[in-house]
Amino acid sequence: MKHGAFLRFIAPSLAAMVLFIALPIVSVLIQSMHAEHEQVLKVVENCVPFAGCTETTSIDQEAMRELREERPLGRFVGGDIYAGRNHLAFDSVGAAWAASDGIGDFLSRLMNLRFYKALAFTLTYTFVVTPFCIVIGLCVALALNTLPKLLKGPTIFLSILPMMITPLIGGLVLYWMLDSRGILGSALIYLTGDPGLSLKASPVLTWVMLIVYGVWSSIPFAFVVYYAGLQTVPEDTLESAVIDGASRWERIRYVIIPHLAPLTTFIALIQLMDNFRVLEPIVSFSAEANAISLSYAILNDLRGTETALFGSAAATSMLTIIGVAVLLSPVIWRTWRDFTSRNAH
Amino acid sequence: MASKASARSPLATAVLWGFLAIWILAAAFPFVWTLWGSFKVELDFFSLRGWQNALTGRFTEAQTGSPFTGQAYEAAWLREEFWRNALNTLIVTGSVVVISLTFGTLGGYALARSGYRYAFWILIVALIFRAMPHITLVSGYLLPFFQWGIWGSIPTTVIVLVAINQPFTLWMLHSFFLNIPKDLDESAMVDGCTRFEAFRRVIVPVMWPGVITTGLFSFLLAYNDFAVTALLLREENLTMVPKIASFLGSTQVDGEIMLAVSSVVSATVPLFLLVMVFQRQIVSGLTAGAVKG
Prior knowledge:
The complex is a heterodimer of chains A (345) and B (293). Chain A folds into three domains: 40 residues, no CATH class; 34 residues, no CATH class; 231 residues, Orthogonal Bundle (MetI-like fold), CATH 1.10.3720.
């Protein structure tokens, strides 16, 4: 296709991506270097007859409004937000390092800092949910493949529901069952014999609950991809494995799993990207007291109680984007290597 | 695989099917339970005294005279005017699907037919864009949108969702168009069609299976979105999902949580029907990228 025609065809799509994905990243970068204006204070003298004069200090609303109109971004602070307490918090990290007596103590001190708390949860969630959903998804696919044909359709339908459902809704549906007044919550109280047991009571239980949701909602994706892959396993290879005396387990281990390996890379890539942005379950489970993710920290800043903290949200966003880049770097590196080696020949 | 290779012992079969049964229960039971509970009053569905109340509907019967009640639905749809949010969802998702597919088919076709290196790089950049958490982009939109006075309206949200959806749409339609033989449109061009005429007369009539599959995923993205719609829409323009989230904030009041339960069920029904009707396309769409690439 000629350059001109190509450009005309791709223009709408490219324009949408540049305007609403590429430029916002630039906008985030700029915003992350600006903080909210400092409050303009004014001193008003109040004189009451016979009682004398008192001075009161208040925020000069009019001056603030003018300042905001003049410079909507706020004041330029460079990298201060990044270094500040709500983000990388270099001072506090240094202080924690100096005061702590061992790596465990240092890490638990770090968990008091918002950014590290969010990062710790996001990474744990991503790297626990992804392998679990791959392993269980593979098992479901292997089991489903043995069903009689008639049962396969309905089983697939029920199996993919957790993925198709709105994440916020899926989270709520599980939460209402796990709540101490819900059916699973009561069952747990009954089984443990502890009437005060609540999944929201401790950070560990909250994390477990969120990870359970994560695995539940992402198994279907792994399962569907593996199931399709299973349909393409070469029958000949399987039969020769049987003739060679391979047991069922050996056939899975030496024929099926190697055949599915490229799919595993694909599932892992998609799952890492999607799990890294975890947001909705924390809203559904009202888990913010015990677990926040990077995305949740941004949402919280943007929905700030008085004014939205654009600078702070933007700085967290930039750090999140850097996180995504690190996650994707092996993939991009490999693509680049393949591409250059292909061109070298 | 109905051959010797799939022969197995009865024990192995029992274990496999038992495992599958547990998974199916885990996948489907929460929805059945919530549907059931949405016809109860709060004291039954969120019972402190024991879960049996949710089955028998003791308090529901005491309060309304029947073990099932539509109270929660009435309160959500009529009193809280949830139908407005349903209408907004319809407008937003409908527009997103149509615009995404229009942009996506043109772009995907161009990417599939261009042999130049920049087409490859556009796809790689699209993959990186696909990985951007949506909320990081939203934090970039808010301030400019406030400044330009376009925050809160439905068209703004639609175009943002279209843009966020483009990387995926491009990838999917690109790989679909690669499977349509080049000869088809090229012979039309030899016969004197321009590139666009060849696309319209030859490619458009055969592209619908791929477009429908891609459209389903565009629909799901727009319908399921929370980050963009919750932050970019004004109160009266809210779609269903952020509205449900806002019900959660008011659950301290007695019975209010049932508003959320009934609206959750209401918002789930269209998804159920969609998956039921288009199951085959969804499964093939999910695997298209993986099995081929």
